[in-house]
Amino acid sequence: FLKLNPNGRIPVIIDHSNNGFAVFESGAILLYLAEKTGKLIPKNYEEKSEVIQWLFFQMSAVGPMMGQANVFYRYFPENIPAAISRYQNESRRLLEVLDFRLGQSEWLGSKYSIADIANWPWVRQYDWSGISIEGLSNLQRWDKQMSNRPACQKGIDLPESSDAPRKIDKGIKVKNSTVTT
């Protein structure tokens, strides 16, 4: 697996149509697939740059901060109020940045894009981190809009059963995707 991802973590995809080319890291995978398919990313350089900026915002800010908020709020063995407060407050600030952007545009870019796909899983889990989105009406609208998308609904429904982790561990075909270990 380390040949596919030197960091030894998921996600990783293997593009069998491109000589088994492996791509790791969520943002890199989204960008690779968008570029390869010509979907979910604008062709215009300014609009494309805008999408990439919001993608990187998730990778460098929303994901790491909300991830830490989750760890200290839910999982860390010791209760460290300063850490919980720090990460929840910074996560809330980042959600306010998204709310401001979504007050200017229906989507993070000019159209639905990989930027929305990357940010939404974190936004929809705000309460798991102990964060409120009260007063963030643009973010709430967008969250609802994203939640109603058929592809997002499919993602919410996974895993379909308690067998999914076992199936993934064994590299068994789950739906239309093969997970390699």
Which segments are poorly predicted (pLDDT under 50) over 5 or more consecutive residues? Answer: 164-181
Sheet with the most strands: spatial strand order: 1-2
Order of helices and strands: EEHHHHHHHEE
The overall average pLDDT, rounded, is: 90
Q: Distance between the terminal alpha carbons, to the nearest Å? A: 7 Å
Give the strand tally. 4
CATH class of the largest domain reads Mainly Alpha
Annotated CATH architecture of the largest domain = Up-down Bundle
Q: What percentage of amino acids are in beta strands?
A: 5-15%
**Major sheet characteristics:** 2 strands, antiparallel
CATH topology of the largest domain: Glutathione S-transferase Yfyf (Class Pi), Chain A, domain 2
Number of domains: 2
Radius of gyration using CA atoms only: 18 Å
Give the helix level as a range of percent: 40-55%
